[in-house]
Amino acid sequence: MQRQDIRDIVAEGRKCAYSGCGHAGTTGNERAMSARNAALKTAADYDRYPLSYAKRVLSRFTITSPIAQTLTGHGGFAQYLNRFKLKDSPYCACAPDKVQDVLHVLEECPIFGRERAETEAGTGVVVARHGFPALLDDETNRKTFLEFCERVTRRYRHVLVEILKNPEPEITETLKAFVEAIVNENVSLVISRQLLTDVGTHLSLLPDNVSQEVSHFALDVIQPRAISFEEQVSSIRQHLADIYERNQKWKEAAEVLVGIPLETGQKQYSVDYKLETYLKIARLYLEVDDPVQAEAYVNRASLLQAETTNEQLQIYYKVCYARVLDYRR
């Protein structure tokens, strides 16, 4: 074992035991083997102090989602996602030979170099595993370090908030650039989905002209990876249909909703969601006097209406069905 390996083991708080087997049957050797086996069975970390002490310490802190991801490594890190087949590669976008785990992101990833430098300047401690004890033992340093951890995991979300502060002429192009960046394959799929969900939520708060343009752009950019963003695509399409409907563009609204893969996608939609969407499409086609298309979607809804317990949707179905029958006369 190399000297650097031993340093790493000590820094990580691990223990390494060496022993060689002696002749079996010899009393002294047997005692040595028993002692070795007992030494290897160390007590669990949580047994080294009373549970009441652990509860008291934990009660002083608020563990946010980003901090929990940092402490456990169970989050939007390429190494973790790759283990569960959610990302093709465990390597970081900064270098093809760097595994993106928690330590890489905190200690050396140049993507977060500015945040790391600010943390080191504020604490006077190098952000590295040998400096973690000093960062966490001191209350002031701990607060600064945990803020750094949160900033790293929430970096893109902070960018979105800043973009939304821009005036209307600029917000359209900056939002487009943001959407294009977050759906890039180099960004963790978990993070991309969450941020795209945030974008979809904020679209409803923007003027219709801005929201409509950004929505169409997002759908175009997402299209090659649409199967990975089904929930977000559905939300954006529903919002876009509402915009068209407000402007009495019934056909455009219907065509946008038709693009939601209610039956062919991987996501399992609820009966009520599919039923309501089919009926909405049928109603929109009826608004432009297209009973043929409307009947096709009423027929799809008929397969679901018996499965719902929502009385409003059942009434909605009967109204649409009656209107289709009126066109047959």
TrEMBL record:
Q: Name one GO cellular component term.
A: COP9 signalosome
Give one Pfam family, short name only: PSMD12-CSN4_N
The protein's UniProt keywords, in alphabetical order, are: Cytoplasm, Nucleus
- This protein's superkingdom? Eukaryota
- InterPro entries xref list: PSMD12-CSN4-like_N (IPR054559), PSMD12/CSN4 (IPR040134)
Q: Report the residue ranges that make up the PSMD12/CSN4-like N-terminal domain in this protein.
A: 157-328
Tell me what this protein is called. Answer: COP9 signalosome complex subunit 4
Q: Which organism is it from?
A: Eumeta variegata (Bagworm moth)
The upper taxonomy is: Eukaryota, Metazoa, Ecdysozoa, Arthropoda, Hexapoda
